[in-house]
Amino acid sequence: MALADPSEEGYSAVFLMDGIEVSRQMRATEFDAFLDGYVGLSDLADTDVQAVFVQIGADLLVRGLVFFRIYFDEEGRADSHWNIPVEALARKGSAGPDMGAGPIRLVCRSLCPEKRFKSDLWDPDMTPGSNHFQTIRKAVKANHLKYKRKAPSDDGQIPVLRTALGKPDAEIAAQEAAAQRNRLAHMIREQRLRIKTLQGAHKDSLAAMQREQRIEHRAWQEETSELERKLERTRLDARKIKKRLERRDLQVSELRQQLEETRTALAEPPEDLEEAPLGLEEAAQAEVVLLREQLERKQRELDNLGEITRELEQALSEARNQAPDEDSLIRQLQDQKVFLVGYHSGVGHLTLPYNDLRRYFENPTGYAAEKCGLSEPDYRRWLDHYENPICRAPGKKSGQTCGQPVMRVSQPGEFEPGVHDRCDQHQASS
Fold this sequence. Notes:
This protein is an alpha+beta fold and 430 residues long. It has helices at 28-35, 86-91, 132-142, 157-165, 169-267, 279-321, 329-335, 357-362, 364-372, 376-387, 424-429; strands spanning 11-18, 21-27, 47-56, 62-72, 94-98, 103-107, 340-344, 348-352. It is built from eleven helices and eight strands.
């Protein structure tokens, strides 16, 4: 970067910020050593630091500020790819606040002379009473870097005084008026800068909230989908077990019938058979006992699966209706009574209360159709007509429509399919 530390024109320094406080000060030459990788800062390891390049005059008053970011790696060394020409940017800076020596040259994200460096800059806090400019001014005034203050020459003041004494009242009044205009212009520039920084901070905050909301919504959808998949698998397993039990019941019935037939045959033995086989009935009874045990075991499994199914259904219902965590963005939006707004043709802007968010995100078009008092297919037919008002009567060729422009019906409730989406020729023929 080749930062200079001139002795005649002034001084250059780099301040590392922690919030609005200056956490570390170094001369430009010291910062050069960090950029060259000779030394590192262990306390800043793996940190994206907000820093300020400060141009200081010989009178130890701030002349220019460049608010930039720099990353320190895991070893506390400055990013070797960092190449922001802060000195060159400071020379191109816009007029900023008066920090004791007139308006400074200011470069930040909202006032960047070269757009390619905008993402590497940041906006200072301009809150009245406590902001970055006041903190930097105090740090420069404290002069912990031990810069030598150069006394201003008195020779240049005498001609000014002598000249002022000889000026007429009209010229003095004109100068005072010009000075007043300059002060007003400076105040306007400061207010515009503050508005830009506030707008940038608002956009960043809004983007962060939207990103967090999307992450939470995605996680909620994934959790709900997982519970639904578990429930569906459980229901499928329950149906399979039920079919198996039905087959077992049929087998048991057949075995019982065979047993009855065997008992009947044993009760009426053939004439040529002196005695019935002794082990046949015992074997049949043992088979029945075994089948009963299997039936009871499967019944218990079915009962357990039924209990699991009920628990999963309850968990799914609780997951759908559970209140968000206290520290979540959704809970904050609910507590602060913040509503989301969506826009749909035919309905306009819809205010989405918290209880309707899940239903809206599952089917936005169906939600809009409900607000119009229409079914979803009717609303979609009107929407197709509204976006492309043409005759949709079948054309001469297969798969084609007439395509003649028709009058657009702006209200969904007034649209009649087959009437308003037909040209005069096809209305007459229908």
